[in-house]
Amino acid sequence: MAKLPLFLLLTALSLPLSGIDAQPVLRNINADAVPTFFFEAISFSSEQVNKSHVDIYLQVPHEELRFVKEGDIYLARYEVNVGVYTPEKELVQDRSWTVEVREKDFAQTTSSRQSSLTQRGIELEAGNYEFVVKMEDQDSRRSAQIRRSMLISNYAKDTMTVSDIMLVSRLTTEGEKKKIVPNISGNVGHLSEGFFLFFEIYNAGTEDSLELVCRVYNSKKEQVYERLERHASLGLKTQSFFKVENLHLPVGTYLVAMEVSPVRKDAAAGILATTTRTFTVRWSDIPASVTDLDKAIDQMRYIARDSELEEIRSSGDLEEKRKRFLDFWTKRDPDPTTPRNELLDEYYRRVELANKSFTHYLEGWRTDRGMVYIRLGPPENIERHPFDINTKPYEIWYYYQLQREFVFVDETGFGDYRLKYPTTDLWGRIR
Question: 232 - beta bridge partners?
Answer without folding.
Answer: 209
